[in-house]
Amino acid sequence: MEFRNKDPGAVQYGNFINYYQFNSAEERLKLLPTEHWSADDDEQNAPYLVLDVGCNSGVFTQLLYGYLSKLLPQRKILVYGVDIDDALIKRAIAENNCDSIAFDCVDVMDNNAFEKVTEYLAKHQRSKFDAICCFSITMWIHLNHHDAGLQEFLRKLSSLAKLFVVEPQPWKCYQTAERRLKKSGEVFPLFLDLKWRSQVEDEIQNYLESTLQRRKVYESCPTKWKRKICFYR
Question: What is the pTM of this model?
Fold first, then answer.
């Protein structure tokens, strides 16, 4: 179901057309650590593959590429940005001048569409990405696919990542998203049925650590939106 409204901030999938006007890509970059990106057992001669899920128009994706290129000068950095919104991906492609960055319109919860991601890995003869980044996307997966859908999302992407980077939205952000959508005459149908609620960040961390056997190696200071970027190996 597509929600139709006049408020650009009331969106179903978090696909804001003006996202970087209110959420600075540069400020997010400052929160990233200089360590933890590579592991001792990495193949140093192989390209460093990154998947950026929910890349929007690609502004942060390009900054991340530049950041990692300086941080890991011995590795060729390849970044694959995917987003559910075709218009945003078209903008990302139009504004991309780097051959090492690619963009695709992919709904990661659609198994057929997700084949583009596995095909990207196969093209580079790899079974996993060195890093998969999920910046401020977990809430939108959760609101549209319930608790089980969010767990599937975490499980699916974690299985393809050496390093899993997650910036989950706190419950207050859910309430804001629901309130804005209500003003436009719509609601998130699953909102009231979610079991992961007030402590959703802790639920995500517990699932990654206890169920998926991930180990948290880094947690950033909170952003102005009270979100923390967490690294799991």
Answer: 0.93
